[in-house]
From TrEMBL:
It comes from the Bacteria. This is DUF2867 domain-containing protein.
């Protein structure tokens, strides 16, 4: 689904060329902060899935770093973190910076992706990846809740 009104304004990319959003029903969203939910979704995935994610992001030119020295979630830099909202970002070697957003709501979580295409090459690279991206996000979210909707 297209992110709800106002969601894109959280992005720091300046221009967004691709965006999507998913909502997932969870019991007691308030039990964890938005950052803790994002960690549960990404870092709580099985090791094989985390490796697949890191490999895919690297192939897309995203600069993700698993350094313990910086504030990150599975290599994505934390750009903003509040109890109900977290925004992660990754710069790109190829010209395709991206952001992941998680917003905690009353009875569900909203997960959104924002991508900027700085050139025709990355636009062509991203298009065939979208179905895999959507499937992976749905699978990650299904691990923590029920009724994933895009």
């Amino acid at each position: 689904m297209t992110p709800p009104p106002g969601t894109r304004s959280a992005s720091t990319l300046g221009r967004v060329d691709y965006e999507d959003a998913f909502v997932i029903d969870v019991c007691k969203p308030s039990a964890l902060s938005a950052e803790q939910w994002m960690r549960t979704i990404l870092e709580g995935a099985p090791a094989a899935v985390r490796l697949q994610l890191l490999s895919g992001w690297s192939a897309l030119g995203l600069r993700v770093s698993l350094s313990k020295a910086d504030r990150s979630v599975l290599g994505w830099q934390i750009r903003t973190a509040e109890p109900d909202f977290v925004l992660l970002g990754a710069e790109s070697r190829l010209g395709m910076p991206a952001e992941l957003l998680l917003r905690r709501e009353t009875d569900r979580l909203l997960f959104a992706t924002f991508v900027r295409h700085d050139n025709a090459l990355v636009r062509a690279l991203w298009a065939p990846v979208v179905p895999t991206h959507v499937r992976m996000v749905q699978e990650l979210l299904a691990r923590v809740g029920s009724d994933v909707r895009s």
